[in-house]
Amino acid sequence: MRVQPKPWIGLSIAIGYLLIILVTTLLILDDPGRFPSVRWALLHQVLPVGIGIVFLVIATSWLGWWRPALFERERKRLPWWLWILPLFFAGGAIFNFVNADRSAIPIEAMLAIAAGTVCIAFAEELAFRGGLLVGLRARFNEWIVWLVSSLVFASAHLLNVAFGDSLPQVLGQVAFAFGMGSVFYVTRRLTGTLFGAMLLHFLWDYAGFFQPSS
């Protein structure tokens, strides 16, 4: 590693990513079009998150943190029964997607939203359970790493207030995001790689876009 991990560096990566999303979204999200559409996916997902990904890739490369960000080092194994969590949510996401009414959604819109969701899953996992986790592990035990990384991930959803959601709605999102962040953390630990958490993140978010509440 070019730079020794420290908690403040990991937190700076996460905050930097969030600031990029906030600023770029407020600047370009004048008329994203209606969901679901290619225009909505490009302006709401691909463009702002893509800029954030550029920042994350540059930061992770400069720090030399790719290996610890993407792969687990030898750590105490989690109990096998915790596989229930990622398998349950993966199964639920697939079930919801298969049973969603997508008859009125053009295939090109579904593909564009899929591309945008890939960007979100990659970026958020690299920021919150990649760089942030690496920084926290330099000083804290795994209980603190789980708690802080999940809290920061959950708190990031407070930005939705700036995007038009009501405060009670956002507080509900924050509480749910803490739970999902915990599941993504467990998934990383169980699979031994951040790619496992990215895949589950993608499945959950993508299926969620086609639920009636969307």
From TrEMBL:
Keywords noted in UniProt: Hydrolase, Membrane, Metalloprotease, Protease, Transmembrane, Transmembrane helix
Domain CAAX prenyl protease 2/Lysostaphin resistance protein A-like: 109-206
Listed InterPro entries: CAAX_protease, Rce1/LyrA-like_dom
Domain of life: Bacteria
Protein name: CPBP family intramembrane metalloprotease
Transmembrane domains' residue ranges: 7-29, 41-66, 78-98, 104-123, 143-164, 170-187, 194-211
Keyword Ubl conjugation: no
Protein's GO biological process: CAAX-box protein maturation; proteolysis
Annotated GO MF terms: endopeptidase activity; metallopeptidase activity
